[in-house]
Design goal:
By secondary structure, this protein is α+β, with helices and mostly antiparallel strands. About 50% of the residues lie in helices and about 15% in strands. The model has no long low-confidence stretch (mean pLDDT about 85).
C-alpha cells in the first residue's frame, strides 16, 4: 500500500515521505494511529502545501539531534543486574532499563530508539548501546553491566579513594599553614637579631 507519513517512523521514513508498506502494517498500525494517510492526489497536494513547515521542523530536529549526540557520546551508564560469582547474568539488560538510566541523566529517549544487543550481553562487563537519533544520526553509549557484589566493591573503593583524597588535602592544608607561620616568624627573628647586634659591637 502506498502511504504518506504524518510523522517520522524509524527504519521507514520521515514526515511527508511517500512509502510503500504491507497492507496489514498500514491498516493495523500506521493508519489507525494517524502515523500515516493513504496516498492520493488530494493528500499529496495537502502535504506539498505544508512542505515549507515540514522542512523547518526537519531542520530543528537535525539541530536538536546533533546537540543530543554530542552529549550522549560522553555518557557512561552503569546498570546493576543479578549475576553469579563468575559474572554470568541471571537476568538480561533491556532497552527499558537503559531508558530509565538515561532519564536519570536528563535524556528523554524513546525506548524504540534504544538498541540493546541483549543476546550479546551475557556477562558483567563493558558494552556499547546504540541510540538512534534523527535521520542517520546515532550515538554509541558506553554501558557498564555489574553485579551487586561488584557494585558494593566499587562503592567501597570510591569511598576509600575519597577518604584518601580528603586526608591528603588536610595534610597539604596543615603543611601550608605551618609554612605560613614560619614565614611570619622569620622577619621577627631578623628584627630581634638586628637589635641585639649593636650591643654586641659595643662590648
Amino acid at each position: 500500500m502506498k502511504i504518506i507519513l504524518n510523522q517520522d517512523v524509524i527504519h521507514l521514513g520521515e514526515e511527508g515521505d511517500v512509502v510503500e508498506v504491507k497492507d496489514g502494517y498500514a491498516r493495523n498500525y500506521l493508519l489507525p494511529t494517524g502515523t500515516a494517510v493513504i496516498y492520493s492526489k488530494a493528500n499529496a497536494a495537502l502535504f506539498k502545501s505544508r512542505a515549507a513547515a515540514i522542512e523547518q521542523r526537519k531542520a530543528e530536529k537535525r539541530a536538536a539531534s546533533a546537540s543530543i549526540k554530542e552529549r550522549l557520546d560522553n555518557v557512561v551508564l552503569t546498570i546493576t543486574v543479578p549475576a553469579g560469582e563468575s559474572g554470568k547474568l541471571f537476568g538480561s539488560v533491556t532497552s527499558q532499563m537503559v531508558q530509565a538510566e538515561l532519564q536519570k541523566l536528563g535524556f528523554e529517549i524513546e525506548r524504540k530508539k534504544i538498541e540493546v544487543a541483549t543476546h550479546a550481553i551475557k556477562m558483567t562487563g563493558t558494552y556499547s548501546v546504540v541510540i538512534h537519533l534523527y535521520e542517520n544520526d546515532m550515538s554509541h553509549v558506553k554501558l557498564i553491566v555489574q553485579s551487586e557484589a561488584e557494585r558494593i566493591m566499587a562503592e567501597k573503593k570510591a569511598a576509600e579513594e575519597k577518604a584518601a583524597a580528603e586526608a591528603a588535602a588536610a595534610e597539604a592544608a596543615a603543611a601550608a599553614e605551618a609554612a605560613a607561620e614560619t614565614a611570619e616568624e622569620a622577619p621577627a627573628e631578623e628584627e630581634k637579631a638586628s637589635e641585639e647586634a649593636p650591643a654586641s659591637d659595643a662590648e
